[in-house]
Hints:
Number of helices: 17
Mean pLDDT: 85
Largest sheet: none
CATH superfamily of the largest domain: MFS general substrate transporter like domains
Helix content: over 70%
CATH class of the largest domain: Mainly Alpha
Order of helices and strands: HHHHHHHHHHHHHHHHH
Number of domains: 2
Structural class: mainly alpha
Amino acid sequence: MDFRVFIIAISTIIVGLVELIVGGILPIIADDLNISIGTAGQLITVYALVFAIAGPVLLSLTAKVERKKLYLLSMAVFFAGNIVTYLSPTFTFLMIARIITALSAALLIVLSLTITARIVDAPYRAKALGYIFMGLSSSLVLGVPLGILVTNAFGWRSVFLGIAVLSIGAFILVTIFLEKMEKGDVLPLSAQIKALANKKIVLAHLAMMFMLAGHYTVYAYLTPFLEENLHLNQYWISVSYFLFGISAVAGGAFGGNLANWIGSKKSILIIIGAFALSLFALPYSTFSFPFFLVVMMIWGALSWALAPPLQDYVIQADPVSSDINQSFNNSAIQVGIAVGSGIGGIVLGHTDSVTSMPTVGSGVVVISFLCAAISLSLATSKARRMREAKADS
């Protein structure tokens, strides 16, 4: 594997830390800034919304900028956003800082994906993308406990100072080891909208969105699920999160390797189908904590395994607009996180219990499976028509 992929993966880990790392320290931030926890929670919501919208828009607006230069400029803005966060005296300043970091992070993540797809040969592309998503998933999943640990030792502001310092290291590595790279074919914003007329691509994005929505229907409320169904204390809840995190980190690499082995199209259906089954089985595995941990770790590994083969499929399906479609797919992840958390909240409000959430989440993932199956069917039909046309000519 090209060592530059690992450098980009390191940058992705650093950038990804910012999004959910505040989740575990919201009460401390709220207390320090004299705001409610609900108000502090907007730091996550606004970040996700800005991130989802900014990726495609910024990619279009920066279409004429050389890729390495753009990456370094975005990293500099990301550094500035974290410094502003560290120094923010009020909630307003903190929210502005979150918007700055969300804008830069959205562009950095999509650039990481598009650059990786270009610097590796096609047979190894899914595996390389798997390493990038392994970095992204590790930062999202492990960011919460890391934020709590650093906050307890040095205060919540030091979390963002630390990320800023780490971003300097990433900046230096990219400067030294990544060569200049021309922009390639980046569509203008109007053409991007037209690109969404491609039904199989839209369905692929929806498959990702509903997959993450089903996942976060449960994951956003995993702590009360563990308390209600397994009666775990804080120590064993922390152990469960740690094991889930390890599984999720490995899942990105697993998805990429599976796609390299059996192909992206087969991998997509296998991963989504297995993910739906693992979610459905979750409440039925709570009779034994060790058995539950096995099911939970399978769920965790599959939760981020879809991204590499789906990204590879999108690139194959529409090479010309692959950059923007990778950005749209990343936006679909963010929307899925928001939708899933919302669905979980609705279910909790109507049932007053978290036990039914895995079943609901599994149902949402079934929608993802249907979207993927239809998309792949359309792609197969188009490929068959092209072969027939060549045969006739």
